[in-house]
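Now for today's protein:

——
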Amino acid sequence: MERYARQVPLLGLDGQARLGRSSIAVIGLGGLGSIASMYLAGAGVGRLVLVDFDSVSVSDLHRQLLYTSSDLGKPKADAAAKRLREINPEIKIEAVNRAIMDQDDAEEVVREADILVLAVDNWRTRQLINASAVHHGKPISHGAINGWVGMATTVIPGITPCIRELSGLGVSDEGIACLTGDCSSVIGPVAGVVASIQSSEAIRIAAGLRPALLNKLLVVDLNNGIVDYVELQRDPKCPVCGVERA
């Protein structure tokens, strides 16, 4: 337990043991997923499933600090798995080199884990994973970034709104770009902040603690030095998670 000595007082021995038995899938290994996976590996998650179809490019390196120049051209899932095994050789790490193209793909990924860290940059993939996670009752730690703005929330099926409901929020144009994946630029530290929040929420869930972002969308604006949140409420008519859906 020496490796985890500084966090055991916060999680408890039972919480650390639960974390060591948990399985977490990180879907997307870019600016968010690459950083979140480092914290999850360091914390002692029992099994990490790393899902990404892309390869490391030079434009990734300013924010995806898991990778180095020697990883250029390599599949992100493989490069991430190699580095994370160096960070913590005590945990099980699986690399999945694939894209989420349809609902069957999403189902395969969601069934593999207890908790999902959703760190992709497109709305379609988010919705595919969201629908499958709601169906199977799997929690999601969701993050999105664009420019100087980042957002994070935690989805617990049956308790919180699902990701489908986020698109109707009255947030800024830059915030909507975060959520929909219309992201053309990003500053590295924004990814680091949001990824840290995502990994913290996933660790809390795995350790049996209450997530901090239940029914909240946290908004971080590093251009203006603002951290705020939007209160969320479930829509009973949501076609994915609503109790009144057909």
About this structure: The CA atoms of residues 237 and 245 lie 5 Å apart. The chain has one domain: 2-231. Strands lie at 23-27, 47-51, 92-96, 115-118, 140-146, 149-155, 216-221, 226-231.
